[in-house]
Amino acid sequence: MELSPFYQELFVSLNRGLVMSIALIVPSAVGGVLIGIVAGAIRTYGNRYLKTIADCYAAVFRGTPLVIQLFVLYFGLPNIGIYLTPYVAAVLGFTFCSGAYQSEYVRGALLSIKSGQYLGGQALGFTTFQTIVWIIIPQAVRRAIHGCGNEIIYLIKYSSLAFIVTCIELTGEGKTIATEYFRFTEVFGIIGLYYLGLVSLAIIILKKIEQRLFIPGFGHH
Amino acid sequence: MTEKMVILRVNNLSKSFGDSTILNSVSIELAKGEIKVLIGPSGGGKSTLLQCINCLVVPDAGEIELDNARIQFTRKQDIYRLRQQVGMIFQDFNLFDHLTALDNITIALRKVKKMPKKEAEKRARLELEQVGLGDKETLYPAQLSGGQKQRVAIARALAMDPKILLLDEPTSALDPTLIGEVISVIKGLAVKGMTMIMATHQISLIYNLADEILFMENGRIVEQGPPAALLAAGNKSKSQGFCDRLNELSEVEG
User: Fold this and answer.
1) Is-contact B247 B203, C-beta < 8 A?
2) Where are the domains of chain A?
């Protein structure tokens, strides 16, 4: 069966957009988790100055719309001589935004670890840093994974905002075709299915990670 | 008694939290191989004293000397070294929930003592055998009973080759049917000559193991002496009264 020119063009564009979306999502998700762990740990255990800096970071990026953050990165920074490509601006914006939310999940998980775990490490002669790295974080990761996964799923969907800083990904490609052919329902319906596919894939991967990390006593009994 | 080798000296240790004084100038001298038992009402400062001795709670004032070396509370290196040499057993075990019984023991050997993995595992297996849990090394804390958890905790502390073991009510969180297995491990340690300070309400540990009883009340040691003297028939000591009450309780339970 031969597809009509509209659908041929649509799928070529959407597949190109999908590749760009994945190129935006993967580094942003990884970077977001890493920043989230560091910022979350600092917000929980850091000294007063570091804690204030990390708290401000989380407050700013959780407290302002992502669109505004992207506008500042892409359209604002050139005023002070920093020129970012659309792709870099989008990845940076997503990473910082995601990291701010992740830090809150990580902080909650760190705070949920019983103080006895910390005491047990200290009593054996662990330094504070060793206790956090070897005892607290491995447990906190297992408590944070559900929240962090949720944030990654959310990130997959807000990656569609990249097109407003002219980084043409799935939504941007689709919008071009939709405007050209004036067929919004089909185009955005199909884009929706693409995102549904991406999110389903992410859910499967997260489930696998969860199973790998499973330890009796964490999560279900 | 003059030739006994003092391993730990605690002089005039004090600790307050806000307005309440939890420890009020407490002094203890512990000789190698000696077992001191702390008894007394809850809130008397037994736990805080034990936690101060290995600086889990940093004392406000006083001195701690281990093997004639004074511990500077402001020097982290001093505190880490002290803790490596003074093992601690907690009432609620504090096993690392994300590690198997074996890894609970090896992690400190590897990270603190920098022992190679193979050697650490060999040592850990030996210690698990000693507490009768050789077949449980792959189980996680959530899969162990309370008595088994406490025995793993003891094995973990012993693997560090501590000079002294501090035990903070090691059997208080246990089901009565599980207390026996932990008591027999502790008695085994006593036979091997382990130096210990133990807070306990377990009458058999008090009678059978204590070289000296320290009765703590309101942050002070108000009575001390060998059980034979303090608990002698007709003695009107506080320790005697306290142990009588523990005895009555165990008769009611038994």
Assistant:
1) yes
2) 5-212
Q: In sequence order, what are the residues at sequence separation of 6 or more whose Cβ sits closer than 8 angstroms to the Cβ of residue B55? A: B64, B71, B73, B79, B82, B83
Q: Of all helices (H) and strands (E), which one includes residue A132?
A: none
- The predicted pLDDT at position A46 comes to 87
Q: Which fold has domain B6-253?
A: Rossmann fold (3.40.50)
**Is the pLDDT reported for residue A52 higher than 60?**
yes
The answer to whether residue B208 neighbours chain A at the CB level (below 8 Å) is no
Q: Which one of B98, B110, B139, B149 makes the best mutation probe of the A interface by having the most chain A beta carbons within 10 Å?
A: B98
Are β-strands B6-17 and B86-89 bridged in parallel, bridged antiparallel, or unpaired?
unpaired
Q: Which residues of B touch A142 (CB under 8 A)?
A: 98
Which one, of B196, B233, B192, B223, lies nearest residue B211 by Cα? B196
- Write down the ipTM of this complex: 0.90
Instruction: Count the helices and strands in chain A (H runs, E runs).
Output: 9, 0
Closest by CA position to A47, among listed A122, A102, A129: A129
- Provide the CATH number for the domain formed by A5-212 in this structure: 1.10.3720.10
Task: For B199-229, write each residue's pLDDT tens digit.
Answer: 998 888 888 889 999 999 999 999 999 988 8
Q: In what order do the strands lie in the sheet with B212-217?
A: B86-89, B164-168, B196-199, B35-39, B212-217, B220-225
Listed by start position, the domains of chain B span 6-253
CA distances (Å), origin A151, targets A61, A117, A155, A195: 14, 27, 6, 15
Residues of A in contact with B142 (CB under 8 A): 215-217, 221
**Interface check B108 vs A, CB under 8 A:** yes
Cβ–Cβ < 8 Å for A75, A68: no
The string of DSSP codes covering A55-84 is: HHHHHHHHHS-HHHHHHIIIIIGGGGT---
pLDDT in tens, B57-99: 999 999 999 998 999 999 999 999 999 999 999 999 999 999 9
Q: Is A174 within 8 Å of chain B by CB?
A: no
Residues of A in contact with B97 (CB under 8 A): 117, 139, 215, 217-218
Integer Cα distance of A36 and A34 in angstroms? 5
Q: Is B62 helix (H, G, I), strand (E, B) or coil?
A: strand
Per the prediction, chain A carries an average pLDDT of 92
Cα separation, B254 vs B250, whole angstroms: 6
Which one, of B103, B153, B97, B149, lies nearest residue B124 by Cα? B103
